[in-house]
Task: structure prediction
Amino acid sequence: MTFSFDLLGTDGAARAGTLHTAHGDVPTPTFMAVGTAGTVKAMTADAVRSTGAKIVLGNTYHLMLRPTAERVARLGGLHKMMDWPGPILTDSGGFQVMSLAKLRKMTEDGVTFRSHIDGTAYHLTPERSMEIQHLLDSTITMVLDECTKFPATHDEAAASMRMSTRWAKRSRDAFIPREGYGQFGIVQGSVYEDLRKESAAALRELDFEGYAIGGLAVGEGQESMFAMLDITAPLLPTQKPRYLMGVGTPDDLLGSVARGVDMFDCVMPTRAGRTARAFTSHGVFNLRNARFIDDGRPLDESCSCLCCTRHTRAYLHHLIRAEEILGPMLLTTHNLTYYQSLMQGARAAILENRYAAYCEKTRAGWEDAKNG
Amino acid sequence: MTFSFDLLGTDGAARAGTLHTAHGDVPTPTFMAVGTAGTVKAMTADAVRSTGAKIVLGNTYHLMLRPTAERVARLGGLHKMMDWPGPILTDSGGFQVMSLAKLRKMTEDGVTFRSHIDGTAYHLTPERSMEIQHLLDSTITMVLDECTKFPATHDEAAASMRMSTRWAKRSRDAFIPREGYGQFGIVQGSVYEDLRKESAAALRELDFEGYAIGGLAVGEGQESMFAMLDITAPLLPTQKPRYLMGVGTPDDLLGSVARGVDMFDCVMPTRAGRTARAFTSHGVFNLRNARFIDDGRPLDESCSCLCCTRHTRAYLHHLIRAEEILGPMLLTTHNLTYYQSLMQGARAAILENRYAAYCEKTRAGWEDAKNG
Result:
């Protein structure tokens, strides 16, 4: 099984395809559930599968600290450890070193930091990140980069992007190819068109199996993000998958798919599920709200998940008020199912050249939140 | 469907049978998973079913406070609300009023208390407890009684038991019979043989569908508890199910089944699952212990649950250290499966007249905890 991407159809800039990997196929566009520490929070692997998820994401930063990459390897790899034989993408660790770790120091060689758990010192380089992701048995390895802070001046963004480019080269050299496994480069350049072009061109030279768009969804707003996607997506090879990192709301996903993105990941549906919020075809609900106390309707009547087919909004409200673990379990199940359904619907619509109508109808449904 | 009990076999005082109810059959001896607030903590209803559970318990005290019995009734009853169409036994609320509520005041009429959640005042009488359990659509309703404190003098125990007997009569009068539904009386009398006899005789006059043994597992120790079971069980009708309330450890269950008990409930397997403890055929493990950090074996190689067939002890240890919700989810699944398997094994052994050997072999396995 070669790692490959079949582009099956387009509708404007929107794309529908299939990603082939050593661990199975992934229809795109696709949303990757975030399994930070070797578990999608509040979900069994069977429950994750029940949402329609085909690929999950693991966080190198968390896993390298605990249980450690070497231990995961001894346990047979991340797939076996977390009961997920399907494809897994791991990030490089760089983003979370900058957001979570203590006493960070970045040099050309890499980044030195202390664990947020116990203060242990670590040194993460492109080479070590590739080694860790190899030990984890990651289906898709991400290069180590620096997620450029926002806002950044043109000079700052250029310097940061060029170091990421040098790290991308070192990451590519350190990557150990395996049949059906791939490695993605990450385009940086902040909100500067010339830098995005320079970054994309340099990464294309390295011929990655896929390309991520990084440095977005960091505070620039949806309008700027979409503008950067309009610029960046056309710079990427048509026949390779495109992954927008850390995005986003259902509306962000629809707009990004329209601009040519194939893959997404975000903690939003899982985190929301642990804080009483539900993404539905009628918009976002906060199930803690007293208006649900006697609401005997399913959370989302158009959803086929366990939460929506077996339980009422009133029961979910009760579980949340009573601080029962089943509340987050059911809401996470629903939210991930909603995200998967959104992407499945997008794919079907793209293949039938009715993606704009699909987006319009979906967005109209969200306006109905108050009456939902 | 009449509510009835078929005694299918005995081995010494141990009994194997089948309880027939409006909501399905329950092979006995059986362990009832505790679903306090309308959910077995950290478990979907499907997960509870996967453990082999045939009947669950709901707590009247918790449910009357939140979401309230009237609201549960409007939502179609507890079975529908929690996705458990099978049999449900509810307690009377009395025990938890005494252990959880504030400003309790007991009179001949009933007990007045304030909610531990928001201080709201309630008055619980035998008649109101029966009404609440009816609204919940409980398959098995328990009479309201006073769980006699331990230790109690003979005079205190006698006065308490006699009030419980008067409340049992009022509970029987207030119970609304429905086809396939039943009501259980509760024998009290502390550790006094004459009082247990008086209580049992009075309750037999009321011809309940089953009989519970209350006021045990309240600090008297296993030896005293077993001594009281030796005295009390023979006082109860052979053809009615016998339920030992709030018990206990796997060893308590084996010893109580040997003395003629058919039904149990206890928070132990679920609570232990949320605090890193696992009941296994090799004894009790604390998965937080560092000795499991590299243990690639299943938690219990003889168990067929999701936790044991898909994951390692090292992964469970990791989940607990990382405070991931999946840890309690998997350990609760395992612990409940272990309790169900223990009861299934007991039933099979009783029917084949090898119950003593079954207990001996099971207890020998627990001694292996250190090497497990």
The CA atoms of residues 101 and 116 of chain B lie 5 Å apart.
